[in-house]
Amino acid sequence: MEGRREGFVIAGTELAVQHDKLVVGAAAPDFRMTANNWAPRTLADYRGFVKVVSVVPSVDTSVCSAQMRRFFEASAALGERVVVLGVSADLPYAQSRWCAAEGIARVETLSDHKDMLFSDRYGVHVRDARLCQRAVFVIGADDRVAYAEYVPNIDFEVNFAAALQAAAALI
Questions:
Q1: In which band, very low, low, confident or very high, does the pLDDT at 168 lie, cut at 50, 70 and 90?
Q2: Which of 8, 39, 43, 49 is most buried by its number of CB atoms within 10 A?
Q3: How many whole angstroms separate alpha carbon 55 and alpha carbon 38?
Q4: DSSP H or E segment with residue 115
Q5: Dihedral angle of Cα 18, 1, 40, 27, to the nearest 10 degrees
Q6: Model-level pTM?
């Protein structure tokens, strides 16, 4: 498989990202990931909710941790019809440890470590590093992509305001 033409910069090196980007308005691809309790999760598990999907390379880095924390802090204001999903290729053990250390309860962390299926379908698979490219997606209750942002450099943040505005518009 080939990566997209533009990649994801890590430590000054541009790595190819697997598969195409999602298109706003398209149906969100199904996924299969693992929750902190090792239970499988799919897109259908969140049917009827607006989904803010915060994708990070690893919860154990400062920018990634800040991204997850920021969406956690904003999630309470979004209300009960919105679920925030934190996605990385970290093992569920690492995600669970991070949630406990940060006091995170409202963001559900999901691991794509088993087969990188989410990463492939959502166009965030940094194959040579077996990481997820930093990104954020807002998926409506109808499971259509309302917002998609792919960040080109591991050190850059997502546009929090734009993602949260997209989620609020769907409530």
A1: very high
A2: 8
A3: 19
A4: none
A5: 60
A6: 0.92
Angle among Cα 101, 31, 166 to the nearest 5 degrees reads 70
Helix intervals (H) in the chain: 62-78, 92-102, 117-121, 160-169
Report residue 103 as tokens: 């006091």
How much is the pLDDT for 1? 44
Q: Give 127's contacts (C-beta < 8 A, 6+ positions apart).
A: 1, 3, 15, 16, 17, 18
- Interhelix angle 62-78/92-102, rounded to 10 degrees, is 70
CA 47 – CA 151 distance, rounded (Å): 27
Question: Could you report the per-residue pLDDT of 40-74, keeping only the tens digit for each?
Answer: 999 999 999 999 999 998 887 777 778 888 888 88
133: exposed, middle or buried (Cβ count in 10 Å: 0-12, 13-18, 19+):
buried
- Other C-beta atoms closer than 10 Å to the C-beta of 105 total 10
Among 24-28, 91-95, 101-105, 112-116, where is mean pLDDT lowest? 101-105
Residues annotated catalytic, as ranges: 64
